[in-house]
Design a protein that fits this description.
By secondary structure, the chain is of the alpha+beta class. The strands form two sheets. The chain has a four-stranded antiparallel beta sheet, with helices on one face. Strands 1-5 form a two-stranded antiparallel sheet. The protein starts with a helix and ends in a 6-residue tail after the last strand.
Length: about 90
């Protein structure tokens, strides 16, 4: 594990997470739960791919585990997308 794989790094690129939420309403619910985290500045939803993706932008270093735990409160799961294509 590394700093890049275990954290969301502040900046323009953000970190992409895949989620099991499917409907627009569920995606917006997940988005609102993630936005409750202190370091999160923006969450973008991409409904054009499957599984659905969320791009999380932060203003400070944020642990991936914190994002995963926050989304569990909404009743869904997120998994960070791999840094490099496999």
């Amino acid at each position: 594990m590394s700093l890049l794989s275990e954290h969301v790094i502040p900046g323009d690129h953000g970190k992409i997470f895949e989620t099991n939420a499917k409907s627009r309403k569920d995606l917006e619910r997940v988005q609102s739960f993630i936005c409750e985290l202190e370091a999160v500045s923006d969450v973008l939803i991409n409904e054009d791919v499957f599984p659905r993706q969320l791009t999380v932008h932060t203003s400070a270093l944020l642990k991936v585990k914190d994002v995963e735990r926050q989304v569990l409160k909404a009743g869904f799961h997120v998994v960070p997308k791999a840094i490099f294509p496999i």
